[in-house]
Amino acid sequence: MEATRHIVQRWPDDKRPRIVAMTAKAMQGDGEECLAGMVEDYLTNPIRFDLLTKVLMRMQPGRVT
After folding, report:
1. Is omega for the bond preceding 17 within 30 degrees of 0, making it cis?
2. CA distance 57 to 5
3. For residue 11, is pLDDT > 70?
4. Which residues on adjacent β-strands are paired with residue 47?
5. Which residue has the higher pLDDT, 47 or 1?
6. What b/e string do you get for 13-51 counting C-beta neighbours within 10 Å, with b at 16 or more?
7. Are 39 and 4 in contact (CB under 8 A)?
8. What pTM was computed for the model?
């Protein structure tokens, strides 16, 4: 999340890269913490291919997240 804060501070919203967090924690509230940290989405371990595909499709340029 530290790296995300630096990216958010340095890049204007319209030029900032989209960020997808990956967390080993799968406890309730972890996803909300990631989203509150200015990431567009998050994934938990173990990675499920179907969820990874959905997240990547939402991150395509020109798509509204």
Report:
1. no
2. 24
3. yes
4. none
5. 47
6. eeeeeebebeeeeeeeeebeebeeebbbbbbbeeeeeee
7. yes
8. 0.67
Convert the pLDDT of each residue in 18-64 to its tens digit.
888 887 766 666 666 666 767 888 888 888 999 999 999 988 776 55
Sequence-distant (≥ 6) Cβ neighbours of residue 20 within 8 angstroms: 39, 40, 41, 42, 43, 55, 56, 59
Two structure tokens written together for 63: 């798509």
Contact 38, 18 (CB under 8 A): no
Side chain identity, residue 33: E
